[in-house]
Amino acid sequence: MPSVPPPAAPAPSSRVEFIDVFRGLTMLAMVFVNDLGGPGQSDIVGFAPWLWHAMTPDTVYFADVVAPAFLFIIGVSIPLAIGNRLQRGEAPGKIWRHILTRTVSLLIIGIAMGNMRGGRLTMHPLGMSGELWTVLLLLSFILIWTRYPESTGPRQKLFLALRLGGVALLAGLFAIYREGPALTWIQCRWYVIGTIGWAYLISALGYFLFRRRPEALVAGVALLILLAVGDRQGAFDQFHFLDGLRRYLPFGVLLGVHPAMTLSGVVIGLLFTREIPITEARKRIAWMLIFSAGLFFAGFLLRPLYGSSKLTTTPTWALYSTAWSCVAFAALYALAEANLLGRWRQFLIPVGKNPLLPYFLSFMLHPLMQVLGIHGLNDYFHTGWIGVIRTVFVALLLVQLSNWLTTRGRIVLKL
User: Fold this and answer.
1) What CA–CA distances, in Å, run from 53 to 31, 68, 74, 392?
2) What sign for the dihedral angle of Cα 323, 326, 330, 335?
3) 388 CB contacts (<8 Å, ≥6 apart)?
4) What does pTM read for this prediction?
5) 3-state secondary structure 65-118
6) d(CA 133, CA 139)
7) Rounded to whole angstroms, how far apart are CA atoms 116 and 113?
8) Considering Cα of 10, then 16, then 18, then 20, what sign does the dihedral take?
9) What's the alpha-carbon Rg for the chain, to the nearest Å?
10) Backbone dihedral region for residue 40 (phi beyond 0: left; psi -120 to 50: alpha; all else: beta)
11) What is the pLDDT of residues 31-74, one digit of tens each?
C-alpha cells in the first residue's frame, strides 16, 4: 500500500509584519546614532555618554547594541526570504546566484563607505571636495540599486541609463579617490555594510546546510564564537601563510563575531517556518527567551577573558547584544500577537521594508549641507539634551522622508 505522507508543517508567511517593525525601529535608532555622532557629523556635544558608544573597556552603551540588532534581524529574515524561494520551487543555483550577487553588492558598498568614513578628514579626491565625493557616492548607490519598475520603450531605456550612470559615477569616484599626504588609493575597509555582507553569506550557507537541524545552527553560533576566541588567543599566528589573508579578513571579528549574531537570528527566524512546526505564539516566545538566556550565560562565562566591549569587538559584547535583540524581538512579537502595536507601526513598516535608503540619507545629510554652504545651521541646538532632542527630530525627519520616497517616489533599494 502507498505510504501516507505526513501532514505538511505550516509554510512560512510571505512577510511577517512585526519583523518590518523591528527592522524599522532598528534603522530609526541607527539613524539617530549616526546623527548624534559628535564632531565631524552633527556636532552634538555634551550629551549623556550612555547614548553613544562606550569608550571604556567592559562597558556597553545604547549605541553599542544598535548594529548587532540589525545583524540579528537580517538573520531572522534569511529563513523567511530563502524559504519562500524554495517553496516557489526556485532552483538552489538560482538562489545562490541571488545570495552571491547580494553579498558582492554589500561588500562593494561597505568598502566604499569604509573609505568615505576612514578618509573623511584627509580625503583628497582630484579636483573635488571630500563632502561632494561623499554625496555623489551615496547618490550612485541609490541609482545602481534602486528597483526600477518594469516597463518598455523610452521608460525602460531611461531606467537603464540611470543604473548605468550610477555604475559609471561609482567607478569614477573610485578612480579619483586619494587619501592623506601620500595620496593613498582605496583601502580594504569593510565598515558596517561590508561586515553585514560577510555575515549574510556565512549565515545563508548555514541555513542551507542545517535548516532542518536547528541544534546544528546553535552549534554553529558556538563555533563562530570559538573562532573569535581562538583568533584572539593566537591560534592562527603560527600559520604564516595566512598572514596576508588575515590582513583583509580578520577571522575572529569578520568571520566569527559578526556572523554569530546573524546566525543567531537565523535560529529565531526558523521558528516562523515549516522547518520547526511551532504555531503557538507562547511556545515561540518561550524558545526565544530560552535561547537569549543561553546567549547571556555564554557571554557571562567569556566575560573574564576580554570583557564586554564594542570598541574591541569582544565575543561577550556580541553575545550580550544578541541576547538583548532576542528579548526585544520576543517582546515585539508578543505585542503583535496581542494586537497592541498600534497605528504607530505604520510609520516604521516602509523603512523596515527599505532600510538602506534612510541609512544612505543619514550619511548624505551633513556632507550635503557642507556642499550647499548651510552647515552653519548645526551651530544651533547642538549641546546637551537640547542637541539630543534636535537629533531625534532629524532622525524622525529622515525616516519620514525615506517613507515618502519609498511609497510615493517608488525608490526601493534592492540588493
Assistant:
1) 14, 13, 22, 17
2) positive
3) 36, 44, 47, 48, 51
4) 0.91
5) HHHHHHHHHHHHHHHHHHHHHHHCCCCHHHHHHHHHHHHHHHHHHHHHHHHHHH
6) 10
7) 5
8) positive
9) 22
10) left
11) 999 888 754 556 688 888 888 888 888 999 999 999 999 999 99
Dist CA 229 CA 301 (whole Å): 12
Number of other residues whose CB lies within 10 A of the CB of residue 300: 13
Q: What is the pLDDT of residues 70-89, one digit of tens each?
A: 999 999 999 999 988 988 88
Give the C-alpha separation, 284 to 367, whole Å: 44
Taking the C-alpha atoms of residue 306 and residue 312, their distance in angstroms, rounded to an integer, is 9
Query: Exposed, middle or buried: residue 93 (CB in 10 Å: 0-12, 13-18, 19+)?
Result: exposed
Indicate if the alpha-carbon torsion angle 103, 104, 106, 110 is positive or negative. positive
In angstroms, rounded to a whole number, what is the distance separating the alpha carbons of residues 403 and 17? 16
Torsion angle, CA of 19/24/30/34, rounded to 10 degrees?
A: 160
Only one residue has cell 573623511, namely 120
Q: CB pairs under 8 A, 24+ apart, for 142-147? A: 142/166, 142/357, 142/360, 142/411, 142/413, 143/169, 144/170, 145/105, 145/356, 145/413, 145/414, 145/415, 146/411, 146/412, 146/413, 146/414, 147/412, 147/413, 147/414
Q: Sign of the C-alpha dihedral, residues 165, 156, 95, 20?
A: positive
| Residue whose cell numbers read 540588493 | 415
